[in-house]
Design goal:
It comes from Biomaibacter acetigenes. The protein is α+β, with helices and mostly antiparallel strands and 374 residues long. The chain is built from nine helices and 20 strands. The structure holds adenosine-5'-triphosphate.
């Protein structure tokens, strides 16, 4: 049974749909995340599940019981929410934590003890007498997290808590939060548009696009096998090409991409079988970091590399010419013209190994391409 569950949730603004989610549920002790681009409805779903906003249709169940309007405040006190902008009271750091506990009936001495413990845990105990509104963004978010955990909630809601923090602060806080989530085992609903955060923290992820769930799975699975083109782009897959399935051969599908042949492994634990019929027009996605390269014409485009004795093919091989190169942090983004543009990510040490115009052979496993659902 889910600790909290939403059914047939629909939120509209005038005539336009903001959110339409048939079912969403949080398992006890797990971290459930919602990912999606700006405006996809993540925060709206969080507000509905945290009982901060009524949906236009649908209902929320808490521990199996439908939440009625008269129950909302009582149940909300069993939850805690941390927002992107820390909503701290105009008071000292300690008072910010103690006040919430006192409202929930905790005696003054216990409230101070709990505040001390959680401020220590989030490494801000030294700030307890400071004025909360004078803290830096990172300090304020640590205090918000300490305040939320001090409430000992049954469900914790986190709405992009790291979005405003610089990269080192975000990374440090992410590690600390992960540690606290594991040690407390608190059920968590985590909203983010950053897949790295989600992959690090979450057990399960719902991807939202324009208010609709497009996939729900463990984060790594979404990263490896996104369900649709928009999601593939959102998770950063650099190559998405229209293709046509030409034939099935042994355990593979042979696809044509503007005259180039690609072999894709047919069997797999992801759902593209329904796209696999000969003659289908599909989209094929391929991550740039799954593509290897040799700086010479080591093979030709007829896939001879990786061809086994039984006639099966383990690798694709395409030849092309380097069209553009640019450094992006510690990787190089290279586009190779193979008849179609192929974007690949190359470790920075190869920066001087190629120049624009060089001939290059690309090869990638038949496991790497993903046939996307339409
Ligand atoms: N009260 C409202 N009236 C009209 N439109 C709204 C209202 N609240 C939200 N929206 C719209 O609904 C959509 C979803 O908003 P929401 O904040 O849930 O998205 P989000 O995925 O959390 O976005 P972000 O990542 O930018 O925070 C947006 O297009 C937003 O403009």
């Amino acid at each position: 049974m889910y600790i909290i569950e939403g059914q047939d949730i629909s939120v509209r603004a005038g005539k336009s749909r903001i959110l339409e989610v048939k079912r969403v549920g949080l398992e006890e002790g797990k971290v459930f995340s919602v990912i999606g681009p700006n405006g996809s409805g993540k925060s709206t779903l969080l507000r509905v599940m945290a009982l901060l906003q009524n949906p236009d249709d649908g209902c929320v169940y808490f521990r199996g019981e439908r939440v009625l309007p008269r129950d909302r405040i009582r149940i909300r006190r069993r939850m805690a929410v941390v927002f992107q902008e820390p909503l701290l009271l105009d008071a000292t750091v300690e008072e910010n934590i103690v006040t919430g506990l006192r409202i929930r009936g905790v005696d003054a001495a216990s409230a101070r003890r709990r505040a001390g413990f959680w401020l220590e845990r989030f490494k801000v105990a030294h700030l307890s007498d400071r004025w909360a509104r004078a803290l830096s963004g990172g300090e304020a978010q640590r205090v918000s997290l300490a305040r939320a955990f001090a409430l000992e909630p049954e469900v914790l809601f986190l709405d992009e808590p790291f979005a405003n923090l610089d990269a080192p602060t975000r990374e440090a806080l992410l590690l600390e939060l992960s540690d606290v989530l594991h040690s407390t085992g608190v059920t968590t609903f985590f909203v983010s548009h950053d897949f790295k955060e989600v992959a690090f923290l979450a057990d399960r992820t719902m991807a939202l696009m324009e208010g609709l769930p497009v996939q729900e799975a463990p984060p790594q699975r979404i990263l490896d096998y996104p369900a649709c083109e928009k999601l593939a782009r959102f998770v950063g897959i650099e190559n998405i090409w229209p293709a046509k399935i030409l034939e099935e051969r042994l355990e593979t599908l042979i696809a044509d991409i503007k005259g180039l042949t690609m072999v894709v492994k047919k069997a797999g634990d992801y759902e593209y079988e329904r796209c696999s019929s000969v003659g289908d027009e599909v989209k094929i996605a391929l991550r740039g970091d799954k593509i290897n390269f040799i700086p010479l014409d080591a093979c030709s485009n007829n896939l001879e590399i990786g061809c086994c004795q039984d006639g099966s093919i383990k690798q694709n091989c395409w030849n092309g010419r380097v069209k553009s190169l640019f450094a992006f942090g510690n990787v190089i983004r290279m586009t190779v013209d193979c008849g179609i543009d192929v974007n690949i990510s190359v470790p920075a040490q190869f920066m001087n190994a190629f120049k624009i115009g060089d001939n290059i052979s690309l090869y990638f496993s038949i496991d790497s391409p993903i046939i996307l659902k339409k």
